[in-house]
Amino acid sequence: MSESQYKAAFRQSLNQCHIGSTDVPHGTYEMVSKAFKAWEIRRGFRDEEGADSPQLVKPLRGVALRAKLAAESKRRVLAGESSKNAEKQAKKTTKKIKK
After folding, report:
1. Which of 9, 12, 13, 31 maximizes the CB count within 10 A of its CB?
2. Helices in 1-99 by DSSP H: which ranges?
């Protein structure tokens, strides 16, 4: 058997593609990553405080979103009721003082 049958059909030379350098200008990767982080914060996938942390904020969907909205609504209602009760207590104490 001849050795030419196992040789590659192309010759490797030290071209730019084999060295491994890129034609991308300096600072492009940082610019793209900075813009991507800003987009994630804008869309709500990342917190502004933890913009550099790898922990992503998952958007709530379905039952979890309903539970969160229900809890916020309940807090609002309870806060309103407590403020009304505080006003009533304030009125009662002022009436007692006037008598």
Report:
1. 31
2. 16-19, 28-43, 62-98
